[in-house]
Amino acid sequence: MRPARRRTVALLGAVWAVWHAGPAAAVESDPLPVPGGGPRERATRLYNDGVTQLLARRYAQAQALFEQALALDERFAEAHNNLAYVLRMQGARNFSASLAHYDRAIELKPTLAQAYAYRGMLFVQQGDLARARADLQRLLQLDARLATGLQTAIDAGVAGEYRGGVVGQYD
Questions:
Q1: What angle do CA 93, 99, 101 make, to 5 degrees?
Q2: Is 60 in the same domain as 86?
Q3: What is the pLDDT of residues 126-158, one digit of tens each?
Q4: Co-location of 90 and 35 in the same domain
Q5: Which pLDDT score, from 0 to 100, does residue 28 have?
Q6: What is the pTM of this model?
């Protein structure tokens, strides 16, 4: 098998394994405990419902729920992060909006490793490997497992083999 084909098969195998890891695998940001009372309670319930839709790959439904959560609490970093993900999964026409939400999630919560991992994946999809590598450097400090997945995507992107398909979910 040619080296380029071997790398493609390895990347697809890694993505498939992570994607199909089952309930133990987390999504962009996991469901959160629901606080008692106030707008944050309603926002968290909407967010958690959005995570359920995201896991079922019903991205448009998840988008609507994350947007409702953010209407109640604009400072909800995990909701920005997951909204960015579902936007990205709905196609390239949403990449700029997705990037804005990843950026806002990082602004609100600079230690949210998933935001760096998936923003890095977005940069790979856009062919911006320099920015993907910058996110990889930050991610190496936050979560080595997520960094490995991003490194794999960057390596495939460098080889011209990353096709911007579905990216697996990470813990």
A1: 110
A2: yes
A3: 999 999 999 999 999 999 999 999 999 999 887
A4: yes
A5: 57
A6: 0.76
Residue 87 shares a structural domain with residue 125: no
In the numeric block, which tokens belong to residue 166?
Answer: 């579905």
Q: Tokens at residue 35, please? A: 């606080």
3-state secondary structure the chain: CCHHHHHHHHHHHHHHHHHCCHHHCCCCCCCCCCCCCHHHHHHHHHHHHHHHHHHCCCHHHHHHHHHHHHHHCCCCHHHHHHHHHHHHHCCHHHHHHHHHHHHHHHHHCCCCHHHHHHHHHHHHHCCCHHHHHHHHHHHHHHCHHHHHHHHHHHHHHHCCCCCCCCCCCCC
Please report the sign of the dihedral spanned by the C-alpha atoms of residue 109, residue 157, residue 87, residue 149. Answer: negative
- Six-digit token string for 10: 């390895």
Same domain, 85 and 118: no
Per the CB < 8 A criterion, the answer to whether 28 and 121 are in contact is no
Q: Is the dihedral of CA 23, 87, 143, 33 positive or negative?
A: negative
Question: Where do we find the tokens 């098998």?
Answer: 1
Q: Render the burial of 128-159: b for 16+ CB within 10 Å, e for the rest.
A: ebeebbebbebbeebbeebbbbbbbbbbbbee
